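Running log. JK asked me to keep both predictions on one page so they can be read side by side. First protein, sequence followed by its tokens:
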Amino acid sequence: MDKRIKLIQWAEQQLGKPFEWGKADCTTVTLEGMKLYYGKEIPINIGWGSLKDALRAYKKYGSPPDILRKHGFIEITRNFEQTGDIFLWHGHGYWLLGVIISGSVLVADEGKAIEMRPIRGFTGNYYVFGVR
């Protein structure tokens, strides 16, 4: 089966799941999508139960862009993103990660169920990474 179709089907199964730190947060969902799509597993010990714990992990592992670069991902120019790319938005002191699916982003944001948001709905500091 085509890896894009597999990723899209997986993303559809994530929709509506409740947000839960360390199990269904933006990092865990994104890492799962990356493993499925790219076959890459990034060794991060996700033992956090809060935003405060996740922010401590950034200090240990580095920022999401640094982590992705270290594992062979490159920054993609805006408007050239495609299904499977990794979306990073920075604001309010934290990073929101997601997987791009057909022009939208699969995101898990605290207090909300996992959902798709149009990539164009994000303003400011966002980045896209992928492997080409």
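And the second, directly underneath as requested:
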Amino acid sequence: MADKGTKNQGVKVYVGTKAADASSDTFVQVKRCKVVGEYGAEAQVIDATALEDSVKHKLKGIPDSGDIELGGNRVFTDPGQNALKAASSDNDDDPYNLRIEVPGAGASGADLRYDFKALVTKFKDSVGNVDDLIGFDAMVAVTGAITETVVTP
């Protein structure tokens, strides 16, 4: 039941290029993702209290969309994982287009799409334990706003 919450089953992560217009960019899915960290804006609190005040006064700072952790099972031949890895090695300051799609999370079962620009600051392989799969861990630093779009299936 949708009123109990939204399942994360079917969520997909995509990486694009550095194209200025994400709507016309070519995206490739980063397959076998198991972890997508929290995303959304968070603002710092600015203390505006003066000595003559008897209570605290606060202002809202500039929203920051922060960093998003990505991780999953490493597939060395996956074009999406390899594009993310290549982006992490890119020392240019131009961000990449990234996308997260959440199926059926919108009104009337529509999909939700989150588009944003980010610098890929980390991509690491992790061998882990015996009887385990090799994993990958990535971090993307969101620059600018995250745009939410309702996509009708």
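Observation for JK regarding the second prediction: The mean pLDDT is 95.
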